[in-house]
Amino acid sequence: MKMNAQLSASATAARAHQEMFAYWASLRRGASLPSRLDLHPSGIKRMLPTVSLIDVKRDPNGAGDGAIDYRLRLAGTGLYSVYGREITGRTLEDVYNTAAVEYWRRELDKVVTERRPGVGVHSLAWKGSPHMSILWLRLPLARNGKDVDMILGYDAVVGSQVGDQQSGIRAA
Fold first, then answer.
1. Could you give the CA distance from residue 87 to residue 106 in angstroms, rounded to a whole number?
2. pTM of the full predicted structure?
3. 124 neighbors 134 (Cβ within 8 angstroms)
4. Fewest CB within 10 angstroms: 64, 101, 122, 133, which?
5. How far apart are CA 92 and CA 113, in angstroms?
6. Which residue(s) pair with 55 in the sheet?
7. C-alpha span between 94 and 43 (Å, rounded)
8. What one-character DSSP code corresponds to residue 11?
9. Is the Cβ–Cβ distance between 24 and 139 less than 8 Å?
């Protein structure tokens, strides 16, 4: 029974990711990426609790080393239970341990440089919950349609809490 619940949860998460991707894709204008201004919360109302907006911060000094930093401009209320605190306004280093910062920097850098969505699974072992994972989706946004300056994120938490009979997907 537990395995069926987990498989069903993964299928539910995959459908939610498809729905978010379809919404993002509907905002594109040909080859141009959508911008933050194109987003309308009413279009993704059901998913808002685990939505995030991530600012892409390039080196303002133009040092040319290509360094990019990321700041969580917005983190849905459902993400509080994942991180155990408010993460809005924080950088990757403020939220994650070193290994997780490296993972997220690598994944977000790909979204920015390739100008394409990223999707994956990330274990919550870094926060002491190895039995739980985030199924994540990151979608590039660009004010000018080309240069990614923000990333739209959507997360689904899958797994079971230790000592808990519940398993499967839950609101983050």
1. 20
2. 0.85
3. yes
4. 64
5. 18
6. 71, 150
7. 30
8. H
9. yes
**Exposure on the CB side of residue 170, measured as CA atoms within 13 A:** 14
Question: Cβ(8)–Cβ(166) under 8 Å?
Answer: no
Q: Which residue has the tokens 């133009």?
A: 62
Q: Report how far Cα 82 is from the mean position of its chain's Cα atoms.
A: 12
Residue 152, token pair as written in the block: 């739209």
C-alpha torsion sign, points 75, 77, 80, 85:
positive
Residue 142 main-chain phi, psi, to 5 deg: -145, 120
Q: Residue 135's Cα: distance from chain center in Å? A: 9
The label of the residue with tokens 């998460």 reads: 13
Tens digit of pLDDT per residue, the chain (172 long)? 444 444 466 788 889 999 999 999 999 999 999 999 999 999 999 999 999 999 999 876 655 566 799 999 999 999 988 888 999 999 999 999 899 899 999 999 999 999 999 999 988 887 788 888 889 999 999 999 999 999 999 999 887 654 443 334 333 4
Report residue 168 as tokens: 């499967």
Residue reference for tokens 């040909």: 30
CA distances from 15 to 6, 47, 95, 125 (A): 14, 12, 28, 25
